[in-house]
Amino acid sequence: MRTPFLLGIALITFLLGNSLITSKYNLYKTLKTTILVSDADWENLNLMIERSPVDKVKENFELFVKKNALQTTAINCKNGKYFGFTPADDYGYFHVVFLEIHQGNIINIHYDELKSNGKNKRTDLGYNQEMLKTGTSPAIAYPIYENELIRNQDYMNIDAVTGATYTLYRFRMAVAKAFEKAIVN
To answer: Mean pLDDT across the stretch 108-132?
Structure first.
């Protein structure tokens, strides 16, 4: 199944490279966004986020986005409401984002980290009080990330909240997975 697909891409690339289109880069970018990232690759990214120093997380996350030509904005996305979620982290939390896209813009977003039993970090008072000792909490950091995404419209242009740096990469991953469902092919 994959061989005919790849042959089709090679033929299209050859034809378009021979003056049917002037920009090979735009063709590559368009074709690449139609290929979904495998579940195994998402799982590996999740494990890298969980188990690596933050400087390596930053470097490897950026490489992952480039290698897979991931959409970082909603520009080529269909209007609608989408969920994105990551595999569970080392503590059993799934990182979940709900976002609404209209005319290529994110107009609504909600992010949280949930356990399979339904417990979430955002409204867990004990967890938030404990995390405040590090300088922030989910109740503070998550709305900042949501507001920054709506303001910037690009998850790679959001700065980390002190004390919630790993959360930034979990948030980005969940948004990328939502975009994957929303891309217009």
So the answer is: 95
